[in-house]
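User: quick one, fold this
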Amino acid sequence: MTVRVLVVDDHPVVRAGLRALLAGADDVEVLGEAATAAEAVQQASAFRPDVVLMDLRLGDGVEGVEATRRLLALDEPPRVLVLTTYDADTDINRAIAAGATGYLLKAGPPEELFQAVRAAARGRTTLSPEIASRLWSAAARRSGP
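Assistant:
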């Protein structure tokens, strides 16, 4: 199964780098790229990707969280996998609440990205190890001893 991906990031160099990186996976096809939430929704409607790689800060001032909500409101919504440098608890919680399938940090290794894209296409949640650890610790603190 080939996983069809749309890359959403406001930095052209990052989009180009992700496109080149993902081209190295035989089972991943990058359908397009977008710099803004509006472009992301338009392209997702036109191309119907399986997975959208979503940055949290976009060029049109609309955050990736809101873009995620808009994408998930489409008739045939893609899975949204957040790929960002931001690891604040509020960013993570807002992305998850918006319906993101996963949350990865850009500092992670390429293989982590490949695995997450494949998992997201199958509807499985994927988190960067650092993010998973923080969420686990926060849940443990909330539940008490």
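User: anything notable?
Assistant: Strands lie at 3-8, 28-34, 51-54, 79-84, 102-105, 126-127.
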